[in-house]
Amino acid sequence: MATTLADERTTQKGLRRSVVAGSIGVLVHWFDWAVYAYMATTVADIFFPDQDGTASLLSVFAVFAVAFFVRPLGSVVFGHLGDRFGRKKTLSLVIISMAAGTLLLGLIPSYDTIGLAAPILLVVARIIQGVAAGGEFGSAAAFLAEFSPAKRRGLGTSSIEVGSVLGFLLASFVVWVLHTALSEQAILAGGWRIPFLVTVPLALVGLYIRLKVEDTPEYRALEELDTVPASPVSEVFKSNRRQFFQTIGIETFMNCTFYVVLVYLLTYQEEIVGLHADRAALLSTVASLVAIAIIPLSGIASDRVGRKPVLLTAAGLLIAGAVPLFLLMRQGSGYAAFAATAGLAAVLAIILGTHSATVAELFPTRTRQSGLSMAYAIAGALFAGTLPYINTWLISVTHDSMVPAYTLIVVGVVGLLTVLTIPETRNTDLLHESDVSTEGSLSAPVP
Questions:
Q1: Are 68 and 402 in contact (CB under 8 A)?
Q2: C-alpha span between 213 and 241 (Å, rounded)
Q3: Which of 68, 135, 123 has its CA nearest to residue 96?
Q4: How many beta carbons lie within 10 A of that of residue 387, not counting itself?
Q5: What does pLDDT average to over the chain?
């Protein structure tokens, strides 16, 4: 009995360490990402001072989108590495790459100092971040899905998105403190660099934790069975095309909602609703807190009733609630803005708590990281990354401030139709038939 209890404590300790390892890199990733979005108007003044307000903001969001366009490259590289050599190695490489890109961004001289080289270096830094981001979700989702017990896989993988929203929460808090403690002149003079440079110690802590974990049981099973894939990327398109496109649909549903609610909404509230920067940052903090509270509950619900019912509920709420919530936000009242922001965050959290387990369960272990990484990156590059730019441009062209609500309705429809095509995957075995047999697939000797 004592041995059994000791083994159980060891297993629980290993599981907790794995959850922290999987989620801390996501926290660092999204902290970097959110700081850039939350500092959009300041970054516009630093790197694009010769343009008018709308043009410089569009330039900032265009550079934001560039990082998404290189995500597929990162997804192919890190997806291949993860399925070929293990989840642990890519978890470490991703966090190092992300920190390097953010450190570069925080050290770039302003346009007034080095001229055109400043925005060029800004693009380079965002490309490095984008390549790293292409591997983060697939690495973390495969790692945590494979480490979580089947009956608690929804809850286990929901920690990925708790980490992502904690990154946004930390970013919004740091930006709020920055605007509260420093004058606009001090921020423009160099204070804007502080949130980016904070990434370095965070990344070092994340790297240390990730180096301490073992690889997942499922991946070690592939090694023992000698069925590690030689070309996982090509195998995705050979054997898992349906799952790949279903994952693109689900990740478009999640990513677009995510970027409207936690990235674009802050700029929208400043530029369109007319809130002061510190009030908009505070509302973003509220959205993050609401999401953090609901995400684990969504994961638990998906473990008990299934992935599909939870995601279909979120899609229905998004379609029905987007316009009323944006109308409420535009009333000008602080309470109305608070309620609208919290409502949008709640719908987002339902999606966040369930999507990772859902898409991880669609793929076999052999191609899980490649399939997840590439589908996630393509969804981000084609849709989510361009959404802040598209919303800003459409509002300026149509003069209709309800554009973001309309885009969320379209996103909800995409989510609804995609979820209807997938099987219920709750409690499924992550080792599929193709994982234990090399027939009809490309395998390689164990690395």
A1: no
A2: 31
A3: 135
A4: 26
A5: 85
Residue 6 has pLDDT above 90, yes or no: no
Question: Chain-centre distance of CA 20, in angstroms?
Answer: 16
Q: Shortest CA distance to 167 belongs to which of 277, 272, 26? A: 26
Per-residue pLDDT band for 13 (boundaries 50, 70, 90) equals: low
Euclidean distance between CA atoms 284 and 288, whole angstroms: 6
What are 238's strand-pairing partners? Answer: none
User: How many Cβ atoms are within 10 Å of 307's Cβ, its own excluded?
Assistant: 28
- Per-residue pLDDT reduced to its tens digit, 41-89: 788 888 887 665 667 777 777 787 787 788 889 999 999 998 998 888 8
Minimal CA–CA distance to 155: which of 144, 164, 166, 165? 144
Is residue 174 within 8 A of residue 194, CB to CB? The reply is yes
From residue 336, alpha-carbon distances to 15, 140, 342, 365 in Å are: 41, 36, 10, 46
Can you tell me the distance from the alpha carbon of 267 to that of 392, in angstroms, rounded to the nearest whole number? 9
Q: Which residues, 6 or more positions from 391, have their beta carbon under 8 angstroms from its beta carbon?
A: 260, 264, 268, 403, 404, 407
Q: What counts of helices (H) and strands (E) characterise the chain?
A: 22, 0
Give the distance, in angstroms, between the CA of residue 274 and the centroid of all CA atoms in the same chain.
28
Which neighbouring-strand residues pair with 229? 443
Query: Closest Cα partner for 36 from 133, 166, 132, 126?
Result: 126
Give CA–CA dist 160/233, Å, rounded: 23
Closest CA to 210 of 432, 62, 418, 18: 18
Beta bridge partners of 443: 229
Could you give phi then psi for residue 229, rounded to 5 degrees? -70, 145
Q: Which two tokens stand for residue 281?
A: 């940052």
How far apart (Å, rounded) are the C-alpha atoms in residues 391 and 105? Answer: 25
Look at residue 364 and give its three-state secondary structure.
Answer: coil
